[in-house]
Amino acid sequence: MKEHNLNIVYEEITELHRIQQSGIDLVYNKFNWILVSDIVFLAALYNSHRPSVTVTILVSLSGILALLGIEPIKFKITAKVTDQLSSVEDENFLLDLIKTKKEALNKNQSRTVELNSVITYSKWLLIAAIVLQCLIF
Q1: Angle between helices 93-136 and 2-47 (to 10 degrees)
Q2: Which residues of 78-110 are buried (b: 16+ CB within 10 A; e: fewer)?
Q3: Regions in the chain scoring below 50 on pLDDT
Q4: Taking the mean position of all CA atoms in its chain, how far away is CA 113?
Q5: Dihedrals φ, ψ of 8, to 5°?
Q6: Residue 126, Cα to own-chain centre: how many angstroms?
Q7: Which sequence spans correspond to the domains of the chain?
Q8: Cβ neighbours for 70, distance < 8 A, ≥ 6 positions apart
Q9: CA triple 70-14-119, angle to 5 deg
């Protein structure tokens, strides 16, 4: 019974880890879209006759934050397959694997919260730049 319950917990944590990774991929896609928008906006500003310095600064800050967010920081993964295979005979194998996955989830969660705050600031800087540019027109 204990083995069955541990398998259920392992499957749940594995599913959570997969969903978390999908969320991380989505955040990086958002960063890419904001960065592309910033670059296009900056190009349009520099092609205008009198670009607004304030709007240019806001868009530049948004782009810088997006670039910082895209920075390749490794997320924690679970134990390597070779390590798992070498310890498969241990009686606490599933408990150790579950513990490792739980640690990865917690570590990645804090990084995801940090990325979400950076993306929020970048997004709002871009929105402010767009609104200000519309008001200038």
Answers
A1: 20
A2: bbeeeeeeeeeeeeeebeebbebbeebeeebee
A3: none
A4: 8
A5: -65, -45
A6: 19
A7: 2-136
A8: 28, 31, 32, 35
A9: 20
The amino acid present at 33, given as its one-letter code, is W
**Confidence at residue 68, expressed as pLDDT on a 0 to 100 scale:** 84
DSSP letter at 88? Answer: T
Closest by Cα among 46, 39, 47 to 122:
39
CA–CA separation, 14 and 20 (whole Å):
10
Token pair recorded at residue 136: 């200038």
- Residue pair 90/2 in contact (Cβ under 8 Å)? The answer is no
Reading the block at residue 56, the tokens are 């240019």
pLDDT of residue 83: 58
Residue type (1 letter), 94: L
